[in-house]
UniProtKB/TrEMBL annotation, chains A, B:
GO terms for biological process: transmembrane transport. It is a multi-pass membrane protein. Pfam families: Sulfate_transp. Coiled coil: none annotated. It comes from the Eukaryota. It is found in: Membrane. The chain crosses the membrane at residues 50-74, 86-109, 121-141, 199-215, 235-255, 377-394, 400-420, 427-459. It comes from Operophtera brumata (Winter moth). InterPro entries: SLC26A/SulP_dom (IPR011547), SLC26A/SulP_fam (IPR001902), STAS_dom (IPR002645), STAS_dom_sf (IPR036513). SUPFAM superfamilies: SpoIIaa-like (SSF52091). This is Putative sulfate/bicarbonate/oxalate exchanger sat-1. GO terms for cellular component: membrane. Keywords: Membrane, Transmembrane, Transmembrane helix.
Amino acid sequence: MTFLNTNEETRKRKFKKCMSDTCSAKTLKKRLPILEWLPKYKTEFLIQDIIAGITVGLTAIPQGIAYAVVAGLPPEHGLYASLTSGIIYVFFGSCYNVTVGPTAILAAMTARYVSNYSPDFAILAAFLSGIMILVMGVLNLGFLVEFISMPVISGFTTAAALQIAASQLKSLFGLSGSSGDYFAESVYNFYNNITTAKLWEPVLGFGTMVMLILLQKMGQGCNRTDGFFKQMRWFISLSRNAVVVVVGMIIAYVLKVMMDAEPLNLIGDIGGGLPKFGWPPFTTVVGNETYSFTDMMNVLGPQSVALPLVAILESVAIAKAFADGATVDATQEMIALGLCNIIGSFGQSMPITGSFTRTALNHVSGVKTPAGGITKVLLITVALTSLTSTFYYIPKASLAGLIIIAMFSMLDYAILGRLWKNSKRELFVLVVTMIVCLFAGLEYGIVTGIILEAAMLLYKVARPPVDVSITKCQKADIMLVPLSDSVSYCAAEHVRRVVLKASLHTLSETLIIIDGTSLRNMDFTVASNLMSVVKDLEKKSRQILFMNFNSQLKNLCTDIDPKSEAKFVNALNAVELSDQLTKDV
Amino acid sequence: MTFLNTNEETRKRKFKKCMSDTCSAKTLKKRLPILEWLPKYKTEFLIQDIIAGITVGLTAIPQGIAYAVVAGLPPEHGLYASLTSGIIYVFFGSCYNVTVGPTAILAAMTARYVSNYSPDFAILAAFLSGIMILVMGVLNLGFLVEFISMPVISGFTTAAALQIAASQLKSLFGLSGSSGDYFAESVYNFYNNITTAKLWEPVLGFGTMVMLILLQKMGQGCNRTDGFFKQMRWFISLSRNAVVVVVGMIIAYVLKVMMDAEPLNLIGDIGGGLPKFGWPPFTTVVGNETYSFTDMMNVLGPQSVALPLVAILESVAIAKAFADGATVDATQEMIALGLCNIIGSFGQSMPITGSFTRTALNHVSGVKTPAGGITKVLLITVALTSLTSTFYYIPKASLAGLIIIAMFSMLDYAILGRLWKNSKRELFVLVVTMIVCLFAGLEYGIVTGIILEAAMLLYKVARPPVDVSITKCQKADIMLVPLSDSVSYCAAEHVRRVVLKASLHTLSETLIIIDGTSLRNMDFTVASNLMSVVKDLEKKSRQILFMNFNSQLKNLCTDIDPKSEAKFVNALNAVELSDQLTKDV
């Protein structure tokens, strides 16, 4: 009773604390981190934030266009995505390194709904994901992503990288036909259409890939703080994505002028200017069919759960990786990410999350505060308002090369060897996740992986190790059944069976002791089963005792079977208990 | 390597053993238990089996008719259900006490599909459930029902009893209108139609209930082995279900002759004769619509999983309750139950499982072998072939009274008080399960309960207690983090956070020791997180050591980060370890 009251007290205190926390200035700063860092802003931060913003922006533009293409959207949507979210994150983001925007995986997950329906589905997906992420953030449900294990993440990421790379084979070789929604379909289409391959596309595509690798190597050993030449090498290397796209554009333009034709597939017309602001599309028309909100929800289906989960997973993982050992406020990151998606969807943005490549870039460029994002946003605004006619000449093959190289960095071979050596069970989970991702779609794969891991975990919990031991004593032997830390309802029947089975192998005078010394928790189901064991054993005239059950657990048992009261005893160990009993007799 | 080979060996041996087991005479007897008990049959068993068969049969007939009514089926289907299954269980059943047939819960779960569609759906449900149960039996998947905890079972059973009792209010009061598919709907309809109540129906219905209670009390203290009068009292008490129905029939007949009209709602014409044997209905016609197999499957939907699960649950629970401490061969019980349903569906049977009432009756009647079932089957055959014209006069009010009384015995009030006192969490699970059952249907309720319990369990596994302690030592303090038995992937982030957080409250020279002494299992995800803790702490120049990790766990970690090799140490305890280190320095 006292125990319950104390609990009540603690709860009340926690509630009060929670209420006052919600209203304090400290909380305001926590929820609007710009209030924390802006007053402390120093002029020397400015130059570093600007440099970082430029390198990130020079990558965000080609990547934004490329990922819009991956998602099957008009290229400008990829730029819109970095625009609004970039501004929102400056206000709400708690990790100064992180930059948000479109990512390859979210683009690939959106693709199916765009290619089979319309771009409106991508914008609605961003809005809905934003709502889900915000709600999960506010309700502290971020822990849900902890149920996605590393093997599942690894299988999912590898499959995503393969799927995205495969979808670019069409553009890389300039093939006719469609590229396909799945990895398997893309590979199949590639094989079927390989005879339609052109000359200039693969030359430019593979050229782009070689250039990217060389530019990366060029930057090695150079640093932001080095001398001018090394500094330039460092800067060009970091901006390599922009460099290869510019080179591709020049080649396309020169070829056009020289041949008086367009031998390369180009991005073509890009809708210039800033995005139109307005409500996200809650109804849409595809072909002749009007889709109501419910119809659109039905189309998005499992995506509406998988997309926000993956967005949270990516963003929190990135925040943690670049936190330099500081603790990450996952709740705040989720609130920021949710708002970025919601408000972004009012500006025609596709779903966004933290970008690994650009965050890493931000980090090595020496960013100091989230203000770095402002430069990036300005750069993209310039691109949208005055460069779209130039973007006309971006060759699709250049983007394909850029995307494929980016995907290679997402592959993780090392984990395969580690799991093969140490845990074949987890390797199995990885492979199953990957196969389902490749052949049924990314969202089904990740959900399959999560369920498979959870099922395996539940099975393990249902079969806790019970090490029955038999000790010879002076008078009667003892069969000792130690119960572990916590026995759950699903293990109740298992424990019952183990005790009954073990008792069959002992002499009838052997004393059976259930040792609850280290038992902290026990369900009603377990208690009921233990009491039924007593009845089963008494029918065979066997003696059973419960040793060192704490009072709460004992009460639970005696509530079920009041006659069992006398069977609960305390002792230092089983042998002492046996000696006591023998003396009594 | 040796370890792996040994594993391989064991697996081969197990496989061989499994193969030879499958083919041995012992296994044949296990899978066809009649081969075990029939050769040992003694003549003195015969009389006891016959008496038990008669009492069970006299209950199986009225209950069969009543539960067919609950399911909304023509009454004869309830008798068909006891017929075929009764024969099959004689051959395959491993528990001599158990009798199978229609049960109130399965009938209630079938009702919705019958009342909205056609009886064919009940027969197909029996066939499909049989297949599911058989497959689960053969694949040893019976353990799945261990994931249905007592609170879920209790909430489900209580809701089922309430729903079934409520559905009988219409017949009990002779109301017009429909009775409703749900508890809430039935109560609402009862309230709306109460003004249409008749006189004779409630009189007979409540009379039946009073009679049942009195007849039950009459048998108390009497026994099969007593003198003639007491023996008769005992027998009549056990056959009370048949007695009240016969009394009802006589009253209905007398009223008809006296008033020259039918003032009571009667069962009416029952299709006489044995069931027609043939394939279960894989297609059917409802109204003007033809349902293909796929359409029928779509209609059955979640039922096709919930029905077999509940059937297994009921039958295994009953087998265990009446096993007298013997271990129950759950696999064999599932095989028998599966075959009973499959073959039964060829004889127009509704879904069946072990019946608690009739099994208890069988037990107190002193049954000796499954042969008792033969008498029951003969009795039902007689009923079907020559008594159906008499059954015309069974008043629906009598059946309603009989069903309502049977439902009262299913209510379990005691568990509510026990859970209130000991585990409010489990009470919550019970209440949620019950509410969903009452307002959305039994199958949704039980699935909700299972998922809720599993989610709570997973959350608990994701938040294992980590008791960080700080010990003062000569040179430097020690922060000790003991890891429990098994840390799962979903707890990885939690452990990481606890360690990082606790380290913030210690001095920078404090030695951090992760104690793996009692750690048996660790996922790849956990190992990765531990290695990332090392990196995080090293950035702050903190010293961390891993104490007493077994070689397998150590290998997993050093595979991820080979540089951590030196951090793994063995010691008796943390203080000894600290002393060692100080000496070294």
